[in-house]
Write a structure and sequence with these properties.
Structural class: alpha+beta
Strand order of the largest sheet: 5-4-3-6-2-1-7-8
CATH topology of the largest domain: Ribosomal Protein S8, Chain: A, domain 1
Shape: elongated
CATH class of the largest domain: Alpha Beta
Largest sheet: 8 strands, mixed
Distance between the termini: 90 Å
Radius of gyration: 34 Å
Helix content: 25-40%
Number of helices: 17
CATH superfamily of the largest domain: MutL, C-terminal domain, regulatory subdomain
Strand content: 15-25%
């Protein structure tokens, strides 16, 4: 019989394929090695990284350690000490259980492991390169395990080529470190990158661990959550509504001390914030769920970051109620009493006052029936008459001018926006949102916020090109508390941010802003920084060459006049003139329409 087309893959090839599921980037290795350290009962875990994990990832723990046989078996596929049969999958108490992590890592890197149980005199040193055992010898070492992974994807150039920059890969490493450190505050962790100690976290409670990672001021922005039922227990902290951010970041769910991602639970929590936070803002939360392992399935995703509850609707309802109760208990959400009549409430300042007889104030000069000496109706109050006459005269002039302009050049289909043809635009404001004016027989309705935004954006870009960005020094520097990930992002792009007119000083857990671009108002500084950090998101922060353009858009948007702001006629005319001096005035940098135009022909058609 001739050989068939189906063949068994060699072990090293199968391991490399398996590594594609388990090991996606250096952060994947960090997750697997640190989880193994936790499962080994470690009380102190040290993570050492070089070049964002591309050159080295080393985890040192003081856990149980392994003897010579176990140390070698740990690198075999499907070798694990976590489960013995299928029933154990429904009562998992450990992080890892598939038995593929070390085998997959060793298939795509150089691995060196030293390990020793507490009762052994000597430990074991194992070196593996691309699934091949290079060395296994006794060695003097401390209790626990030290495993170093070097040159990740050295034998798969295509995979290594797709790794991001050192900064991006390190942010992913940081995130994995955060997740495990938050889940286990009773364990001390440390993180060292390129020889610099980034974090040194002592054993603590949950709130202290959160503060150590995200800055000490964060504790003032959180309220506790606690709800216990027979099915599930929920405890942790959620952010006060006034500190909701423009971007997601400090949002963590843990089920039985395992970090999970759950859009379903996120929706439940966001429902509790309905009416309390602005649209497209996100509260912080650090929530821990304790549930019988038999009610969940953690084996639905290779990285085990997704789980399935056997009764998701119950978990959803309990979480929503617990969050609402916490916000209400700390007077952060309004309580609703459907039988309450707020219109009958007595204001606090009047609760102890006696009722007073109401008084009627009338204009003594006003008498519609009284005639003067010439038989004409008597004049009303001079001040009132003056205001009324001014109002009606202005209205008549505006209406007459608008009517005259709309009847000119009815044969033209599009307005000529040549600013030099007519400088003195007649303008008035509509709903404190739009500027209404006319040009060559056409009615223009301009969005005042978008128009000003476009003008400021072009001004900023012009100054950027000349290298002379106007700055304003702040009398009192603005202080912004940031977590280490955000601080790292700002450090990466600090030279480009400085070119935009910012003078910033980055300290341990905060940023001091001493100067800003001239158009930016002090009240908007924090929001601009939040918006910039939102755009410098987790996945797209490789080498952002367009960071200046991005910042110009954000600064212009935050500095432009807002909807609801009253403008003087001179301000409206200046804005319209500046807008139509631009080469492209119809759309904002993000493609939103700045104005609409209505021809006199269209207006005539409406009256036909």
């Amino acid at each position: 019989m001739t050989s068939g087309r189906i063949k068994l893959l060699p072990d090293h090839v199968a391991n490399q394929i398996a590594a594609g599921e388990v090991v996606q980037r250096p952060a994947s290795v960090v997750k697997e090695l640190m989880e193994n350290a936790l499962d080994a009962g470690a009380t102190d875990i040290k993570l050492i990284v070089k070049d964002g994990g591309k050159s080295l990832i080393q985890v040192v723990d003081d856990g149980q350690g392994m003897n010579e046989l176990d140390a070698r078996m740990a690198f075999e596929r499907h070798a694990t000490s976590k489960i013995a049969d299928a029933k154990d999958l429904f009562n998992l108490q450990t992080k890892g259980f598939r038995g593929e992590a070390l085998a997959s890592i060793a298939a795509v890197a150089h691995v060196e492991m030293k390990t020793k149980p507490e009762d052994a005199e000597l430990g074991t040193l194992i070196k593996i390169e691309g699934s091949k055992l290079v060395q296994q010898v006794p060695v003097a070492t401390a209790k626990g395990t030290s495993i170093a992974v070097k040159n990740l994807f050295y034998n798969i150039p295509a995979r290594r080529k797709f790794l991001k920059s050192i900064q991006v890969e390190m942010r992913h490493v940081n995130e994995e470190f955060f997740r495990l450190a938050l889940a286990h505050p009773n364990i001390s962790f440390s993180l060292i990158h390129n020889g610099n100690t980034v974090f040194q976290l002592p054993k603590s409670n949950r709130l202290q661990r959160i503060s150590n990672l995200f800055g000490h001021n964060i504790s003032k922005k959180l309220v506790p959550v606690k709800e216990e039922t027979d099915y599930i227990k929920i405890h942790g902290f959620i952010g006060k509504p006034e500190f909701a951010k423009l971007r997601r970041g400090e949002q963590y769910f843990f089920v039985n001390n395992r970090y999970i991602k759950s859009p379903y639970l996120h929706h439940a929590l966001m429902t509790a914030y309905d009416g309390l936070i602005k649209d497209k803002t996100y509260p912080s939360y650090f929530l821990y769920f304790d549930i019988d392992p038999q009610h969940i399935d953690v084996n639905i995703h290779p990285t085990k970051t997704e789980i399935k509850f056997d009764d998701e609707q119950t978990v959803y309802s309990i979480l929503k109620v617990a969050a609402k109760h916490s916000l209400g208990q700390f007077n952060l959400s309004p309580s609703i009493d459907f039988d309450h009549r707020p219109d009958l409430d007595v204001p606090y300042n009047y609760q102890k006052k006696s009722p007073a007889m109401p008084q009627i104030n009338v204009d003594p000069d006003f008498n519609p029936f009284k005639e003067d000496d010439f038989g004409q109706p008597a004049k009303i109050s001079p001040k009132r008459m003056e205001k009324q006459l001014a109002y009606w005269e202005n209205l008549m002039h505006e209406t007459r001018d608008l009517s005259d302009d709309l009847t000119e050049q009815t044969n033209r289909s599009t307005p000529s926006l040549d600013i030099e043809s007519r400088i003195n635009y007649k303008t008035f404001q509509l709903k404190q949102k739009y500027i209404v004016t006319n040009q060559n027989g056409h009615l223009l309705i301009i969005n005042q916020h978008r128009a000003h935004q476009l003008v400021l954006y072009h001004d900023l870009m012009r100054h950027l090109q000349t290298g002379k960005m106007p700055m304003q020094q702040l009398m009192f520097p603005v202080e912004i508390q940031l977590n280490p990930l955000d601080l790292d992002r700002l450090k990466t792009f600090q030279p480009k941010i400085s070119r935009m007119g910012f003078e910033i000083l980055i300290e341990k857990d905060k940023v001091l802003i001493k100067a800003v671009p001239a158009p930016l108002k002090t009240a908007a500084i924090t929001e601009v920084v939040e918006s910039v950090l939102k755009e410098l998101s987790f996945e797209n922060t490789g080498e952002l060459s367009h960071i200046e353009t991005l910042m110009a858009q954000i600064i212009a948007e935050q500095s432009a006049v807002k909807t609801g702001q009253t403008l003087e006629e001179s301000e409206m005319q200046n804005l319209v003139q500046a807008l139509f001096r631009l080469e492209e005035s119809r759309y904002t940098p993000k493609g939103k329409k700045v104005f609409v135009e209505i021809s006199s022909t269209d207006i005539d058609r409406r009256f036909s």
